[in-house]
C-alpha cells in the first residue's frame, strides 16, 4: 500500500522537481500537485508536466493533500507554513527537505500543529538549480534523515520514511540537533570552505582569472562544483545552523593553523602524518556506495 | 618528425606510467626505458609492459636517452639528478612533471647542466597512485606548463612542448615563480584545505566517523577525493612551495574569517553577495573544457 495518495510539493526547484519526477516514476498512481512562488517556475513546471496540477497559490495546492513537502529555502519555511495553515487538511502530514532541522521544525510548528509536522532531509543534490535540473533517480542510494518531533505518532513518521524508501532512499532517524551537527561537518562546512576558496581565487591580482580557470584541473575545479550551488539556499543554511557551523569552523581553523605552522617550520613528518590518514575515509565512502569507485569521480578522459 | 626517439621515465607511478602508456599509444615508434626506485614497482612495470626496458638503476636508464622525464616526488629530484649525472648523454634533455617549478629547477641544475634541463608540469592526475593507476588519455585536453630556464635554447623548449602536445596536452610557457604562484591557488591550497577538513571530520567526537561517511553526499565526499592523493608527493609540494602556499593560505584565512563574522552577526546580504559570485567561475571552467558539463561531475545516479 502506498504511504500517501495525494502529494503536494511546494517549491519546484532541483529537489522539488526531482521528487515530482521520482513520484511519477516509482508511485505512478499518486496524484501530484505543485506550487512555486515564481510564475516562471510554475510555467516551466506545467510545460514539463511535473504535476497533475500546478496552482497559483500555496493554499490552493494543499486543500486535498495527504502529504505536503516543503521544498523551499529554509528561510522561507515559516512564511509558506503561514500561507498554507488555513487550507491544510487536519489529517495531512507536512514534511520538508531542508538542510537544517531544528530551525525548520520551529518555523513550521509556529504556524502548523506539531503533530502534523514530520521534518526530513534527503542528503542528495547537484550544483544545479531549477525545475529543469531535477531527475527521478536523484535520491536512489542516498540517505534521507527523518527527524521526528516528540508530538509525532509512529504511524506518521513511518509513512514519511516509507515515502522516501519508495523514491530509492535509505532512511535514518535522528534528533534534529544531532542532524544539524552531523550536516554542519558533512555538508555546511564543505560548502562554506568551497565558496571561500573560489572567492579567494577570484580576488587575486597576481594570478589572473583566466589562469585560475585554465589550470583548475590541479584540484581547484573540484571546489567550484559545490561553490556553484544555489546562493539563497546556502545563505539560509548558514543563518539557520549558525552555532553548529561556527563550532565546526573553529575546529577546522585550528587544524588549518597547525598545518600552516608545519609548512612554515618545514615539519615534513607532521604533514606526512596528516596526509597519510585521509585515504581511509575516502575508501570507506566508496565502499559504502556513497561515491563513485572510479578515479576522478568517473570523469571522462577522452 | 617525432621530438624524441628514446624516452626514459624515472618514477613509474600514476604520472610516469601514464606517460609510458601515452607514448606507446601516440608515438609507438619511440623506445621507452623505465626505472623506479621500488623493486616492486619495477616488477609491476615489467608485468604491465610499460616500457621496452626497465632498469634496476637510474643511471642505466639514461645512457642512451634523448629525453629523460623525472616523475618522482619533488623532494627526490635532487637525489635522482645526482644519480644520473655521470651517465646522462651530453645532448639529452632532462624534464620533469613536478608540481613546483622553482625548487625543482634548483634541484636539477645543482647536478646537471642547466642548458639540458627543461622543467615542465602537466596539470593532470587522479587521486590514485602507482603503475596500475595510469592511463594513456590522462593528459588529453589538460594543460602542460613548460617553465624554461634562461640557459635553454629555443629548440630544446620546443621539443619538450611538442612532446606534450603529442600526448594530447595544450602547452603554455610560464616563468617558474609565476607557475608556483598560480599552482599555489589552483592546486596546492585546495589540497591543503581538503586534507584539513577530512582530518577535522575524522577527529570529531560528537559526530561518529560512520555518520561522516554515510552523509558525505552533502558535499564532504567531494573533498575526500583530493585528500586521498599521495601523501609523500604532497608533503614535498608544501615544503617546496612554502612561500606561495603560505601567502595564499593567509588570504584564504582572511576571507574565511569574514564569512565567519557574517554568520555570527547574521549578515545574510554579505553571505548572499559572496555566494552569488562563484557560479560564473564554474561556468567558465566547464565552458573551457576543464571539467565535465554534466551535473555532479557526471557521477552516475542509478
Automatic annotation (TrEMBL), chains A, B:
Coiled coil: none
GO terms of molecular function: NAD+ binding; prephenate dehydrogenase (NAD+) activity; prephenate dehydrogenase (NADP+) activity
Catalytic reactions on record: prephenate + NAD(+) = 3-(4-hydroxyphenyl)pyruvate + CO2 + NADH
Pathway the protein acts in: Amino-acid biosynthesis; L-tyrosine biosynthesis; (4-hydroxyphenyl)pyruvate from prephenate (NAD(+) route): step 1/1
Keyword Transcription in record: no
Occurrences of domain Prephenate/arogenate dehydrogenase (ranges): 5-293
UniProt keyword Oxidoreductase, yes or no: yes
InterPro entries in the record: 6-PGluconate_DH-like_C_sf, NAD(P)-bd_dom_sf, PDH_C, PDH_N, Preph/Arog_dehydrog, Prephen_DH
Pfam families, per the entry: PDH_C (PF20463), PDH_N (PF02153)
Gene3D superfamilies reported in the protein's UniProt record: 6-phosphogluconate dehydrogenase C-terminal like domain, NAD(P)-binding Rossmann-like Domain
Domain of life according to the entry: Bacteria
EC numbers, comma separated: 1.3.1.12
Top-tier EC class: oxidoreductase
BP-aspect Gene Ontology terms: tyrosine biosynthetic process
Keywords: Amino-acid biosynthesis, Aromatic amino acid biosynthesis, NAD, Oxidoreductase, Tyrosine biosynthesis
Family: Belongs to the prephenate/arogenate dehydrogenase family.
Protein name as annotated: prephenate dehydrogenase
Species this chain originates from: Sphingomonas palmae
High-level lineage: Bacteria, Pseudomonadati, Pseudomonadota, Alphaproteobacteria, Sphingomonadales
Amino acid at each position: 500500500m502506498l504511504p500517501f495518495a495525494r502529494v503536494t510539493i511546494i517549491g519546484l526547484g532541483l529537489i522539488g522537481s526531482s521528487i515530482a519526477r521520482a513520484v511519477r516514476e516509482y508511485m505512478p498512481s499518486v496524484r501530484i500537485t505543485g506550487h512555486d512562488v515564481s510564475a516562471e517556475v510554475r510555467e516551466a513546471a506545467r510545460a514539463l508536466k511535473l504535476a497533475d496540477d500546478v496552482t497559483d497559490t500555496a493554499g490552493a495546492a494543499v486543500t486535498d493533500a495527504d502529504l505536503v513537502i516543503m521544498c523551499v529555502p529554509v528561510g522561507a519555511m515559516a512564511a509558506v507554513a503561514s500561507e498554507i495553515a488555513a487550507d491544510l487538511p487536519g489529517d495531512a502530514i507536512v514534511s520538508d527537505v531542508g538542510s537544517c532541522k531544528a530551525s525548520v521544525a520551529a518555523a513550521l510548528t509556529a504556524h502548523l500543529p506539531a503533530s502534523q509536522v514530520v521534518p526530513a532531509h534527503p542528503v542528495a543534490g547537484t550544483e544545479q538549480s531549477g525545475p529543469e535540473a531535477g531527475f527521478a533517480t536523484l535520491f536512489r542510494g542516498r540517505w534521507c534523515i527523518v527527524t521526528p518531533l516528540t508530538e509525532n505518532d509512529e504511524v506518521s513518521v513511518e509513512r514519511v520514511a516509507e515515502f522516501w524508501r519508495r523514491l530509492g532512499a535509505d532512511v535514518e532517524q535522528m534528533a534534529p540537533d544531532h542532524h544539524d551537527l552531523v550536516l554542519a561537518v558533512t555538508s555546511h562546512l564543505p560548502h562554506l570552505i568551497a565558496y571561500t576558496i573560489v572567492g579567494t581565487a577570484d580576488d587575486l591580482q597576481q594570478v589572473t582569472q583566466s589562469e585560475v580557470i585554465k589550470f583548475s584541473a590541479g584540484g581547484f575545479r573540484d571546489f567550484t562544483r559545490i561553490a556553484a550551488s544555489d546562493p539563497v539556499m546556502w545563505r539560509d543554511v548558514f543563518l539557520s545552523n549558525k552555532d553548529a557551523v561556527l563550532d565546526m569552523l573553529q575546529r577546522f581553523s585550528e587544524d588549518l593553523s597547525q598545518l600552516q605552522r608545519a609548512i612554515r617550520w618545514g615539519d615534513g613528518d607532521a604533514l606526512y602524518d596528516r596526509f597519510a590518514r585521509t585515504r581511509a575515509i575516502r575508501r570507506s565512502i566508496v565502499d559504502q556506495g556513497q561515491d563513485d569507485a572510479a578515479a576522478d569521480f568517473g570523469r571522462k578522459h577522452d
